[in-house]
């Protein structure tokens, strides 16, 4: 924008002889933000059948997220509906989120794996984070006892894993949380911890809400869950559920004795 000054006492305005340029940068957001977003295409978990597209989770104003598997070399894109002829979106090499009005643009990845995809339509950005590993961390021993394997639809599972509480002078310690290993777009490795709200310090209450997952710190004791007493000296099935259909959560099921 070019600007200058006009001076006036009410009559005979005078325009200044000097002018300047003001450069304004606008965020690459969308005026019409989708209400819902899906990922589809042959490289996605649902394949190219639009009706089987995976829904993304709304996590903020114009922000959507999904944990999903993508196949290398096969195309995928994003839609604002899973029926009819919805709007199509894709990302460029700089992570800019764009609308494909010609319905010809697609994305691909070079490494088959599980990814967290975050789309922010308010600023037109996209972030891809590869999820390398989910691990069960047992606080009393300060160790990762087993990893969970990706199944589908944002779910990781471990089967028939032994659980043994640690004996302390005050009783049996059963505290735990999770660590997720990630790779960013440059290949840099990082860790994200997931656990309970900081004010939780009780055994399971019998309500599903107890198992909801929240970002946690990397300390040995903070933000921990407690296993139910029945889980001691048992074999368990454990799942981490990062699906768009509900809160991020996990489950622990006793399947036998050691």
Residue fraction in strands: over 45%
**Helical content class:** under 10%
Distance between the termini: 74 Å
Shape assignment: elongated
Rg calculated over all Cα atoms:
25 Å
Low-confidence sequence ranges: none
Question: Could you give the order of the helices and strands?
Answer: EEEEEEEEEEEEEEEEEEEEEEE
Give a verbal description of the structure.
The protein is an all-beta fold. It has 2 domains: 38-123; 132-257. 0% of the residues lie in helices and 47% in strands. It contains no helices and 23 strands. The chain has strands at residues 2-3, 6-7, 14-15, 20-21, 38-40, 54-55, 57-60, 63-70, 77-79, 88-91, 97-99, 113-120, 125-138, 143-152, 155-163, 166-168, 171-173, 175-183, 189-195, 214-216, 225-226, 234-241, 249-257. A hairpin with a 5-residue loop joins strand 10 (88-91) and strand 11 (97-99). The protein is elongated and about 95 Å long.
């Amino acid at each position: 924008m070019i600007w200058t000054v006009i001076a006036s006492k009410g009559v005979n305005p005078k325009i200044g002889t000097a002018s300047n340029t003001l450069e304004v940068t606008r965020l690459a957001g969308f005026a019409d933000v989708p209400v819902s977003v899906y990922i589809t295409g042959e490289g996605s978990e649902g394949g190219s059948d639009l009706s089987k597209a995976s829904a993304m989770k709304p996590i903020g104003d114009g922000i959507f997220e999904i944990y999903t598997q993508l196949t290398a070399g096969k195309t995928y894109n994003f839609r604002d509906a899973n029926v009819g002829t919805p709007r199509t979106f894709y990302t460029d090499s700089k992570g800019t989120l764009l609308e494909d009005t010609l319905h010809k643009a697609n994305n691909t990845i070079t490494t088959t794996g599980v990814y967290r995809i975050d789309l922010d339509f308010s600023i037109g950005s996209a972030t891809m984070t590869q999820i390398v590993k989910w691990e069960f961390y047992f606080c009393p021993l300060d160790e990762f006892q087993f990893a969970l394997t990706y199944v589908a639809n944002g779910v990781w599972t471990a089967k028939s894993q032994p659980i043994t509480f640690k004996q302390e002078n005050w009783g049996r310690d059963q505290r735990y949380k999770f660590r997720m290993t990630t790779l960013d777009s440059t290949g840099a490795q990082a860790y994200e911890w997931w656990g309970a709200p900081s004010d939780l310090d009780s055994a399971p209450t019998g309500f599903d809400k107890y198992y909801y997952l929240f970002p946690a710190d990397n300390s040995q004791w903070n933000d921990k869950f407690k296993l139910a007493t029945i889980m001691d000296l048992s074999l368990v099935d454990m799942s981490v559920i990062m699906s768009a259909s509900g809160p991020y959560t996990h489950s622990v099921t006793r399947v036998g004795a050691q």
